[in-house]
Design brief:
Distance between the termini: 6 Å
Helix content: 55-70%
Strand content: under 5%
Number of helices: 6
Structural class: mainly alpha
Number of domains: 1
Radius of gyration: 18 Å
Order of helices and strands: EHHEHHHH
Strand order of the largest sheet: 1-2
Number of strands: 2
Mean pLDDT: 91
């Protein structure tokens, strides 16, 4: 396919991006007005601008920004047999995809069992607005990055871009929990074991990079 993708993929991706934008506007509005909760044990009710304390929210908002940027080019290329989406747009989309990929993996593998053990009420992690942020939207973004947005191939070195949002968030999060400004609602320290922070940081970033590379692997295969 080279540096182009077909008009069918472009049309599908356009509606996918619209869906991501609309659902993000809905969820953020609910969060800012007190109608949504994060659902992590220890997180409490994050409302107002405190809603953005969660990586779940930040990663999904980033993916929506990427969708908005991509939508401009989807609309521009409507009806064209050979659709060209700039590579920099795909890189931004990758950053969002890697972020929400980490989000859904964390929710399924770590937070759901933890919530079940602590309270038994694990379904809250997939209820209300979190149905979009913890499940539907991450799946849609990751699959779109892999199989729809296929204009240019990406290198595994470029996969490091997908880790940047997590690194920025992790550094802020560490500072906030070290200064007792935030509670450790992601259990980064496993119960105030602060000496574990460097190890946890390395593990999380490594997993995030692996997920970013996984997106690239399927993305490149679909771009051939």
């Amino acid at each position: 396919m080279g540096d182009t993708m077909n008009k069918k993929k472009n049309l599908i991706l356009m509606f996918v991006n619209l869906f991501l934008i609309v659902t993000n506007i809905y969820v953020v509005y609910k969060g800012l007005t007190g109608g949504a909760t994060i659902g992590q044990v220890g997180a409490g009710e994050m409302h107002g601008f405190g809603y953005f304390k969660a990586f779940t929210v930040d990663s999904n908002v980033l993916s929506a920004v990427a969708a908005l940027v991509c939508l401009v080019f989807n609309i521009k290329n409507i009806g064209k047999d050979k659709v060209v989406i700039p590579k920099w747009v795909e890189k931004i989309y990758l950053m969002g995809a890697a972020g929400v990929f980490l989000t859904i993996l964390t929710v399924i593998v770590f937070l759901t069992p933890l919530r079940y053990i602590k309270t038994g009420d694990w379904i809250i992690l997939y209820s209300g607005s979190l149905f979009f942020y913890h499940l539907v939207n991450p799946i849609v973004v990751v699959l779109s990055m892999m199989f729809l947005l296929n204009s240019h191939k990406l290198t595994y070195k470029e996969g490091l871009l997908g880790v940047i949002p997590m690194i920025v968030y992790a550094l802020v999060y560490i500072i906030m929990i070290m200064t007792k400004t935030w509670s450790d609602f992601y259990f980064f320290t496993f119960g105030n074991k602060y000496f574990l922070i460097p190890l946890v940081f390395i593990v999380v970033v490594s997993i995030n990079y692996g997920l970013s590379c996984l997106c690239i692997k399927f993305h490149n295969k679909a771009t051939e």
